[in-house]
Write a structure and sequence with these properties.
With 259 residues, the chain is α/β, with parallel strands linked by helices. Helix content is 48%, strand content 13%. Helix 1 (2-25) runs parallel beside helix 8 (238-250), helix 2 crosses helix 3 (51-72) and helix 4 (91-114) packs parallel to helix 5 (130-142). Bound molecules: farnesyl diphosphate (FPP).
Length: 259
């Protein structure tokens, strides 16, 4: 009897989820969604677990979020997995986070390939442990011909450093005559950033109740819509992503103009 009720409830929930997905797909879906996945530590603390347990649970949410974004027709999903400032964390936590790409891709790469997802990474590669970089590069290689969702991991990424590096490159190109001063505009400057191949994010999501950007895509988020939630990243569900996109679809984007 109880099993029957549970089965009915599950069927009912998945049909409402499916209905919501279909309704969302009828309206413009954000091309690029960027997420600051925050609250793993607090999720673990609430359960008297070590912080790394929160990161592990957060990794599972990466899979669900990727699959749904792909299903919705999102073109790029950028996930802030590790910032240039996160090295300040305890050694064991940093080492654990650096093992997650291997675990994630070791388990889910076949599913990503099967679902036409392309894996990419932005951030400073040279400071990453060899095993982390190897896992990411293997996934990038194996998915390079896929043309569905681009799953872009921001790993050892920091926006200010990215901008400074872009400015240095602009100065070099100007000195060597490749770039003339009057040719430099916003579009050209964007091409010097790590995101040169992507459109700017349409929607930024941050979990865990923190209302700040934490050095994430400062240039690229100039005209993005922001959606903040108190939900901790390991508790972030498909329903939450759908809610964020529903809110996005109701917003009027004016890009500084008037309607
Ligand atoms: C912020 O929460 C989270 C991180 C710095 C790590 C995010 C990493 C994942 C979600 C897993 C990534 C998975 C792959 C495949 C790379 P926090 O630790 O700052 O949480 P707190 O603010 O509650 O302490």
């Amino acid at each position: 009897m109880f099993n029957k009720i549970r089965l009915w409830k599950n069927q009912n929930n998945s049909s409402t989820l499916r209905d919501k997905i279909e309704a969302i797909k009828k309206l413009p879906v954000p091309e690029h969604v960027a997420i600051i996945m925050d609250g793993n530590g607090r999720w673990a603390k609430k359960r008297a677990l070590p912080r790394i347990a929160g990161h592990h649970e957060g990794m599972k949410v990466v899979r669900k979020t990727t699959m749904l974004a792909n299903d919705l027709g999102v073109k790029t999903l950028t996930l802030y997995a590790f910032s240039t400032e996160n090295w300040k964390r305890p050694k064991n936590e940093v080492e654990y986070i650096m093992k997650l790409p291997e675990e994630f891709l070791g388990t889910f790469l076949p599913e990503l390939v099967e679902n036409n997802v392309q894996v990419k990474m932005m951030g400073y590669k040279n400071q990453l442990p060899v095993h982390t970089l190897h896992a990411i590069e293997k996934a990038m290689e194996e998915t390079k011909h896929n043309n569905g969702l681009v799953l872009n991991f921001a790993l050892n990424y920091g926006s200010r450093a990215e901008i400074i590096d872009a400015v240095k490159q602009v100065l070099n190109d100007s000195k060597s005559g490749i770039l003339k001063e009057n040719e430099l505009d916003e579009q050209v400057f964007s091409s010097y950033l790590m995101t040169s191949e992507f459109a700017d994010p349409d929607l930024l999501i941050r979990t865990s109740g923190e209302i700040r950007l934490s050095n994430f895509m400062l240039w690229q988020l100039a005209y993005s819509e922001f959606w903040f939630t108190d939900v901790l990243w390991p508790d972030f569900s498909e329903e939450h992503l759908l809610e964020a996109i529903e809110v996005f679809q109701k917003r009027q984007r004016r890009f500084g103009g008037i309607l």
